[in-house]
Amino acid sequence: MLRLGSLEVALPAVQAALSGYSDRAMRVVARRRGAELCMAEVVLDKLVLLKGRLRDRMLALGPDDHPIGGQLMGAEPDQFGRAAAELVEHGYDLVDINFGCPVRKVLGRCRGGYLLTTPSVALDIVKSVLDRVGGRRPVTVKMRRGFDDSAESERNFFEIFDGAFDLGVASVTVHGRTVEQRYVGPSNRDFLKKVKGRAGDRVVLGSGDIFSPENVADVMGETGVDGVWIARGAIGNPFIFREARALLEGAPLPLPPSIAEQRRALEEHLALTAETHGADRAGIILRKVGIRYADLHPLRDEVRGVFIGVRTCADVEAVLQRWYDPAGEWPPVERRKVMDRVAAGALLEE
């Protein structure tokens, strides 16, 4: 059981906030396959406050899309707090503060991971969010282990980490890479262990290099963290949540998803994408997701190549007819080989 303030979930593996991916379609498909707490796409605080289609889409939550967390990014404490209040008032079950995004244009605007260099501003943001939310929902923080590998960066990290808990956040999620690393090199599990040892009973989640159910169990076992965020490892692989649940409960791992199961997931993802974004955009949006679904297919390279050419819903349906025919004769794929390919592909793509 993962306890985040007043919110309790049975599966301590959270679908992470993923810009451009974790929309309603991805979340619902994952929920149907075992995910519980899912994060919406990270969004700028000012876009939550401005009227427009993005705001409308972010605030339109279905009854089948809970519990859901909203992750905010920004640089100005009062604006951050007002946006957090909007999420709560429109039904979000949790508000998360992003102090970890390593994208250069984000850093250049003093957002995301940049705030790890300015502890006083970061903690002003935390206080503003907590004040505006007023205890109605849990508030959490997502961080990287520092801006870089310097001693000053680590001091800044712990000033924010300790200060956020002292102010009243329900948990802190720590990605084991620095901002400067982006996605290069391994996530530092030793640092996660150090952080959790310092936190004691306070809730800490780990993030980074979670591509398989074994990774979930290993990170929790090796570091003592209370749970994990599954980010890139969940793109195109909603089945990872049922697998993680089985492993954590001591049950045998389910068989890898069959061609029929993969097809059903893709059909659902396409239909939900069309509902969310419109049929005219659904095909092109699903292309990048389909490329990652292809990592589970026994003929990964061929299917990946076909998805690269997808533009319309009809294109996606043609791929499903040709490459996801349950009656076809497909070679088996061992789980470990599949997950190794997913990890390698994800690292190259980021």
Describe what you observe in this structure.
The chain is α/β, with parallel strands linked by helices and 350 residues long. The protein has two domains: 247 residues, Aldolase class I (TIM Barrel, Alpha-Beta Barrel), CATH 3.20.20.70; 75 residues. Helix content is 49%, strand content 13%. The strands form two sheets. Strands 3, 4, 5, 6, 7, 8, 9, 10 and 11 form a nine-stranded parallel β-sheet that branches. Strands 1-2 form a two-stranded antiparallel sheet. The longest helix is centred in the last third of the chain and has 19 residues.
Please write the string of helix (H) and strand (E) elements.
EEEHEEHHEHEHHEHEHEHEHHHHHH
Q: Please, what is the average pLDDT?
A: 93
Structural classification: alpha/beta
Report the CATH topology name of the largest domain: TIM Barrel
Computed CA radius of gyration, to the nearest angstrom: 20 Å
**Domains counted in the coordinates: how many?**
2
The separation of the N and C termini measures 32 Å
Q: Which CATH class of the largest domain applies here?
A: Alpha Beta
